[in-house]
């Protein structure tokens, strides 16, 4: 079995995806596989790279599934350490994606491992996996999203500034929240735990509000955004609410997302990490996303799909912090050398890390030592090659590759645009 080979990756056409050729997902899929003809009136939302049963990847030349290839040689394709650690002889522990976002995704969170097993057992139709789903997003273009709850003092300020928000939460819960939060509480202290309970009460009131109450106050909120933008404590919030309301009129997401969650903007190359049980939603842009191999979603708003309000309100961590603290700090990567630059996005979980390699300062070759586990690489810009031994494979936008454990490779850039993202897992 070759240690490096091209993959065909499947795509998903969800309603929120960018339309036709404007979607990076469509561009990548069609450039990688000439049989894919872009339908210009349809959305192209996600490119999936991995072994997940819903949209598996296939070896390009033989059309064998990556899952079957791993099952035929688990040690060679996963590494003994990863088999021992994650317990599978046929699946990657991560799922790698490209997302192209035109409209806001549902406000959502993902269960941790213990809850995922319970939800999958009780409701496999809505929760198809028994695994958790922490995830990381790296911006390929300018990106907007919601990530985690705002600092408590911001929420308290909004409850005093915006009558429609207070109407939905109710005077009693709003007053208790405003008077009793301790914004300077130390993490994991008794005061922090009490803050989280207060935040849960506010979020629970929003999520359990009647449709009639939400619609009435959503219309008032949008009128306020149009007529009195100075009433809001962030200058960008009125326009954001107006834009979201055009996509999902009179939706609870205006409150549980727009007023309770951080509005996050990333420039290309910046990243955020979202732990299991953290609420979030992507609003617009193109991203590279990596997550534990799961498709479990507990939804809250901006969606016509199933909303599991009870589980959502009970499961969230209710962590609250500034948006800047949600962003990841890239690390230098010591196990490569040569031309170009490689930076590591290494979240605090076991299933994956992502390595971004660019050649903005000049073309040439960058060498990588063998990793202790498998990796998947996608080229997002420019042209080059991936080489190992005598094998030399062309790498162009949308081309996806599998690299087996302990395989030394060279990335050769033909131009300074050449950009790759490499998701990998190692047992240590």
What do you see in this structure?
The chain is an alpha+beta fold and 428 residues long. 29% of the residues lie in helices and 28% in strands. The chain has an eight-stranded antiparallel beta sheet with strand order 6-1-23-20-25-18-17-15. Strands 2, 5, 7, 9, 10, 11, 12 and 13 form an eight-stranded antiparallel beta sheet that branches. It is elongated, with a radius of gyration of 23 Å. One of its GO terms (biological process) is carbohydrate metabolic process.
Question: Which helices and strands occur, and which strands form pairs?
Answer:
Blueprint: E1 4-8, E2 10-12, E3 18-19, H1 24-32, E4 43-44, E5 46-49, E6 58-59, H2 66-72, H3 74-78, H4 80-86, E7 94-101, E8 107-109, H5 113-122, E9 135-139, E10 143-149, H6 152-161, H7 163-169, H8 171-180, H9 190-207, H10 211-227, H11 237-247, H12 253-259, E11 261-266, E12 271-274, E13 280-292, E14 298-301, H13 309-315, E15 331-332, E16 336-338, E17 341-345, E18 353-358, E19 364-368, E20 375-381, E21 384-388, E22 391-395, E23 400-403, E24 409-413, E25 419-424
Antiparallel strand pairs: 1-6, 1-23, 2-5, 3-4, 5-7, 7-13, 8-14, 9-12, 9-13, 10-11, 10-13, 15-17, 16-19, 17-18, 18-25, 19-24, 20-23, 20-25, 21-22, 21-24
Helix pairs in contact: 6-7, 7-10, 8-9, 10-11
Catalytic activity: D-mannose 6-phosphate = D-fructose 6-phosphate
EC number: 5.3.1.8
Domain Phosphomannose isomerase type I C-terminal: 342-390
